[in-house]
């Protein structure tokens, strides 16, 4: 063992640090325990087997021991004010918030004091209601059980009775159905036979009816037309106008080879003479053109010659009204037939627009044009079928400013709502289909233009006027449906307010506009309107004589001349 001697460095010693470090190293070396006395040679490793510390390691350790305390003191000096500031801020916030906390606690206590009685009262009230209602609840349950006990047997009895009745009645039901089938099997052949018999009788009787009418026509049997007018009509109706209408003074004898209304209507459409027209195209305000067909001799007349404007029917054109145009020309009138927009072979639409039945836009422009072109001439007009309705609506719309001095309506339809819509319409189904077919031909001719606005496929499938109105005219004129369209295009409103002396000509056997649709009371009330009824004539036909001359044209011309003569006198 080595004798270790401890060297104590008194505190406050002023010895140098280098000497102190050397002394410390000496002591540490001895304390580590050397195996032999005496210092180790400098060329050998240390006696404890460790390497001797170098000089730079000593300097580093000394530097760390000196710098770290100073850094810690510096950080303490810098951070301490922040710590103090945060504590002061926390105290300040505590001072400010604490009153609010105390106030909220006091408010909560106050609300608790106020609400608690209400809570207790509600609980007491609920308990009281429970005490009162519970017996009722129990009573209702007991009553329900009692009723169930009493009613259930009745329910079971009714079900058993129903089953018993079903067992008894079902065979009767099956028997009745079998009996009905048996009767149907027996009656259906009788029904078919009766229909066939009716058709056979019709086929046999109709030729006899036509033959009897042909015989009466051949022998010159006819009936004097019936004249309907108001008792308030002025005397000149009889003295100056009606007395000069030759057709009213003798019987009307229809053409012998077209004696009934069907043949009269068909011949009027199919066997019209070839017209001699000079066409004029007039541009409307919207850029569309309307064709006016003038009688070929109109240019040879004087400027003050009466101007006759003729309007065609529902699906017709100027060719259909040629007999009236020719009759007027032979009476010295300047005659023109107006083709409605899109009607007639010469008309070509440039815009997807077909006017509504009573749209007077084009007619007003034409009337204004002709009034300006012939200011000294009297304007008179004749309308066929739907053209009569248009002329009637025009007179009602413009009144005394319509420029028309006299008007004639040939086979007007009057109330078109009843004629076309109500319960399938008063019009015969066959003629309804034929008129629809002719309208579809007009639409098909202008398909390239109209397909922009309407469904051509749906339009071509229509079989009635009502359907065609729904798919075509409602779309082109902004109507919701066919009912609203025909309600707005019903000429009955204009019929009650004529703007000039008016003559209406109808036939009792008209298959398109039947006699039951003629408002006789209107003619009995209005003093300026006259209705002439014939027993035959069909729709717009009124053919008489072997050559099938139109009696209505001569009567219309006589009426117009009489009215103009009366006005000029």
Structure description:
With 569 residues, the chain is an alpha/beta fold. The chain is elongated. The longest helix is centred in the N-terminal third of the chain and has 164 residues, at 55-218. It is built from 16 helices and eleven strands. It starts with 16 loop residues before the first helix and ends with a helix. Strand 8, helix 15 (520-525) and strand 9 form a beta-alpha-beta unit. The protein has a nine-stranded mixed beta sheet with strand order 1-9-8-7-6-4-5-3-2, sandwiched between helices.
Break the fold down into its secondary structure elements and pairings:
Blueprint: H1 17-31, H2 55-218, E1 226-229, H3 236-241, H4 261-270, E2 277-283, E3 289-295, E4 307-311, H5 322-330, E5 334-338, H6 361-373, E6 379-384, H7 386-398, E7 404-410, H8 416-421, H9 429-445, H10 447-450, H11 456-460, H12 465-477, H13 482-488, H14 492-495, E8 502-507, H15 520-525, E9 529-534, E10 543-544, E11 549-550, H16 551-568
């Amino acid at each position: 063992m080595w004798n270790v001697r401890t060297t104590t460095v008194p505190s406050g010693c002023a010895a140098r640090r280098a000497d102190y470090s050397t002394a410390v190293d000496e002591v540490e070396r001895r304390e580590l325990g050397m195996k032999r006395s005496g210092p180790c040679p400098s060329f050998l490793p240390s006696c404890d087997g460790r390497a001797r510390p170098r000089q730079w390691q000593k300097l580093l350790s000394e530097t760390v021991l000196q710098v770290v305390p100073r850094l810690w003191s510096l950080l303490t000096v810098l951070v301490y004010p922040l710590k103090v500031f945060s504590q002061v801020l926390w105290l300040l916030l505590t001072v400010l918030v604490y009153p609010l906390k105390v106030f909220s606690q006091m408010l909560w206590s106050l609300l608790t004091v106020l609400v608690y009685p209400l809570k207790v009262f509600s609980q007491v009230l609920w308990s009281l209601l429970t005490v009162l209602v519970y017996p009722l609840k129990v009573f209702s349950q007991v009553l329900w059980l009692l009723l169930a006990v009493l009613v259930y047997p009745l329910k079971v009895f009714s079900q058993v009775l129903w089953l018993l009745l079903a067992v008894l009645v079902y065979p009767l039901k099956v028997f009745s159905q079998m009996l009905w089938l048996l009767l149907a099997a027996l009656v259906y052949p009788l029904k078919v036979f009766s229909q066939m018999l009716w058709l056979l009788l019709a086929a046999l009787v109709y030729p006899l009816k036509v033959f009897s009418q042909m015989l009466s026509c051949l022998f010159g049997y006819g009936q004097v037309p019936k004249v309907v007018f108001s008792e308030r009509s002025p005397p000149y109706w009889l003295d100056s106008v009606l007395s000069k209408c030759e057709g009213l003074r003798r019987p009307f004898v229809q053409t012998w080879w077209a004696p009934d209304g069907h043949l009269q209507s068909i011949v009027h459409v199919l066997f019209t003479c070839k017209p001699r027209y000079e066409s004029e195209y007039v541009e409307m305000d919207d850029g569309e053109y309307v064709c006016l067909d003038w009688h070929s001799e109109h240019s040879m007349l004087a400027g003050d010659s009466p101007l006759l404007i003729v309007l065609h029917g529902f699906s017709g054109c100027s060719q259909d009204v040629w007999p009236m145009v020719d009759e007027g020309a032979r009476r010295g009138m300047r005659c023109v037939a107006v083709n409605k927009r899109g009607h007639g072979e010469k008309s070509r639409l440039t815009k997807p627009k077909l006017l509504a039945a009573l749209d007077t836009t084009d007619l007003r422009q034409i009337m204004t044009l002709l009034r300006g072109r012939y200011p000294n001439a009297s304007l008179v007009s004749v309308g066929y079928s739907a053209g009569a309705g248009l002329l009637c609506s025009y007179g009602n719309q413009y009144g005394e400013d319509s420029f028309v001095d006299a008007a004639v309506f040939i086979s007007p339809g009057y109330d078109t709502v009843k004629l076309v819509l109500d319960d399938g319409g008063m019009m015969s189904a066959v003629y309804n289909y034929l008129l629809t077919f002719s309208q579809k031909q007009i639409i098909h001719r202008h398909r390239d233009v109209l397909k922009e606005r309407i469904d051509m496929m749906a339009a071509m499938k229509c079989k009635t006027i009502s359907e065609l109105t729904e798919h075509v005219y409602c779309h082109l004129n902004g109507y919701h449906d066919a009912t609203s369209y025909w309600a707005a295009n019903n000429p009955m409103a204009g019929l009650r307010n004529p703007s000039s002396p008016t003559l209406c000509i109808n036939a009792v056997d008209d298959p398109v506009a039947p006699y039951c649709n003629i408002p006789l009371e209107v003619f009995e009330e209005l003093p300026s309107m006259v209705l002439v009824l014939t027993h035959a004539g069909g729709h717009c036909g009124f053919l008489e004589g072997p050559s099938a001359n139109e009696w209505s044209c001569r009567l219309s011309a006589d009426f117009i001349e009489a009215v103009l003569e009366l006005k000029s006198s």
